Amino acid sequence: MVAKTAQSSKLVKGKTVTQKTKLTWKPNRSKIDLSKIDDPLAKPKTSLVNMPVTGVLLDTKKYKQIIDFHLANNLMFDLDAMPHFEKMAIEDLLVPEEVQRLLDIPHCTNILEKFDPRLLSPIYVVRLNGSKKGLVFDSRHTLETIAAITKAGLWSFTNKATGQREVLSNKNWEKFEVNAYVIDTDDESFAMIAALYRNGAGSKPWGPYDYHRVESRAFDFYGNEGPDGKYKLASDKQKLMVDTLTVPLPKGHAQLGQLGTFGHIEAVSDYKAESMDELQFILRANHKYWNGSNDASMFGFYGHIYRDFTSVGQPVKGKVFDAYMNELHAIIKTMFVSMAELKLATTAAYKDYCQKIGKNPGSPPFNCALSIVEKIYKKLNGKHFVTRNVNDFVYSPSAGVKIDIYDSLPLSIRHDIQNKYEL
Questions:
Q1: Which domain holds residue 227?
Q2: What are phi and psi of 354, to 5 degrees?
Q3: What confidence tens digit (pLDDT) does each residue in 277-287 have?
């Protein structure tokens, strides 16, 4: 309910005067039970298990069909062709130009800054039968880092005979042996095939939720703050999201989209420690005004409010600011119902506006929805300060001609703004 009084008409000195409906915002005080959300990150460490491998794939229909086809046709896989581990000298490893990317020195620098020998991956190698040399199809940057560390003389080890720590000589560094995962084959093109599989069809890259899950648990379960406090920050974000009814869930989760859930953890992951005040403002504002209805457009809308007010020294709390926010949300709830519907209306208006000015529309800029709502606010004679976004999305092709995105809103909305509502 957003209307304080119903619209009505009365006779004043022979004229019919229409009373406008006053827009007001009222909080949604309904309760959301987060315990009914199957949140993987709400599970305590004691409830997590190390699961055994049971061959469960054979219980799935499509997988079993493929297996049955192989069995029916005696299509066996060659165990002798399976890759194997062995030690290979650096000098016996070659980087094929047709397969590998150019050496990314900043990436190698990043590896070195965080270098931990326990985290080294094997070097993935294809070796043609009869050759001593191996063709590296993955982990090139790991290999280059190991080579540089070895050549610089930065390895030390415990001498098993004396029990003393010694520095490994960098003489003949190119003979240093690395752990290689080797595929022996006669197929000269297999290095390319293996590279495509390793980096594409044969891999399932981690998504933003996977990183957030592991980083936050590293701190919550083991107190590991991570490099520059990264894991602790992920934990702080998780607690903030739960407190504001914005529980992050992985893509494909059966409950994703329900009140209190959120599927765009990447929008939160972008915030650094120095910008946590902004993130807190966004999530708390969304919680206050939408109570668990979480649309990713909140980051553009509330983020621009926060940045634009704070950049000119204006407060983002207090009685006056709260009145401004309440009036903005009275407009949104009356004209658009929700942030998701506002996003749809913004996309349509921006497309129409771009067509009028001869511009390829693309996606609306992140401040577009706020600009539209503040334009409506000004049309309704709002009295509080607004952000500078209110003057965006206006095009003047010639003197006296102005094209404003406001005029791309549906006629019914513009009619109601002019004739039906007031603040």
A1: 207-280
A2: -65, -40
A3: 999 999 999 99
Does the model's pTM come out above 0.85?
Answer: no
| Same domain membership, residue 228 and residue 152 | no
91-137 per-position pLDDT tens digit: 999 999 988 888 999 999 999 999 999 999 999 999 999 999 999 99
Domains in the chain, number: 3
Residue 6, pLDDT score? 46
User: What is the pLDDT of the chain when averaged over all its residues?
Assistant: 94
Q: Could you tell me if residue 420 is inside a domain?
A: yes
